[in-house]
Amino acid sequence: EKSDFLEVAYLLIYGELPSSEQYNNFTKQVAHHSLVNERLHYLFQTFCSSSHPMAIMLAAVGFLSAFYPDLLNCKEADYKLTAIRMIAKIPTIAAMSYKYSIGQPFIYPDNSLDFTENFLHMMFATPCTKYKVNPIIKNALNKIFILHADHEQNASTSTVRIAGSSGANPFACISTG
């Protein structure tokens, strides 16, 4: 009840709740990796405006594998940093997919905001209007993120696990589910 999504993400990656210092370092790492390569903008332009945001998002997550070719032969040591990159970049891509679907310009991440505030900012701000985060919506979305963090064993999770067991690039594996 008193945890946030990044605390739960840390727990799932490292197997224990973070200390205050570990949490601060983890949130800084996630913020650092939230920006996506500018070339990703060109990928979005290849989709027609009526494309479903989820289809665009899946393509964009798979596209990230092109920026991390060293992960084609992913080793266990790479998994934690890759998980952090995914936690950081997937909300950015989701917001970009949404913005593209409604014909609005992409909004860059704002590292002065916490994880959930930043996602809401990227989804609902415009270049000329700053988004004021409603604390009730922020709290509800944070709980939704926590609920989705442990995704159990549904069909998409099984698909990702099967793809991942082949040693393929983790971004490509995530895009299968």
Automatic annotation (TrEMBL):
Pfam families: Citrate_synt. Transmembrane segments: none annotated. InterPro entries: Citrate_synth-like_lrg_a-sub, Citrate_synthase, Citrate_synthase_sf. Pathway: Carbohydrate metabolism; tricarboxylic acid cycle; isocitrate from oxaloacetate: step 1/2. One of its GO terms (molecular function) is acyltransferase activity, acyl groups converted into alkyl on transfer. This is Citrate synthase.
